[in-house]
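Re: the 130-residue chain
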Amino acid sequence: MEAFGNVPNEVSHAMHYGGVWPNNALIVDRFTQANIIDGFHVYGIEWERDSMRFLIDDKVVWNVNLRKSWSSGRGRNPYTAIRQPWDQRFHFIFNIAVGGHHFKEAFNHAATRSWSRPEMTVDWVRVYQK
């Protein structure tokens, strides 16, 4: 899940796969709701053998079928079967990223020095297995 301060009505979900850069690929889905980045929300992923569902406030906003080849089509294919790499263990990364290609207008990195309190507040994280 990603949110951008300059796009307050949108969050996106992404699945990255394929070989190492530059042979990797991703698919992205965007969810739009007025002022979605304000306040707290419950974000979830329900990961099952054949699908991955992304949720916001208990509502499924994106459903991905995992029963296919996830080769990026570039470089050597690191996968030998359908559902790979989604049959492996993964980990979570929480961060505040600044800049990058997500910003439609030129990003002024100098402006970030004036941020008095950039923060990402996480109330809780729960991981469980059926």
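The mean pLDDT is 84.
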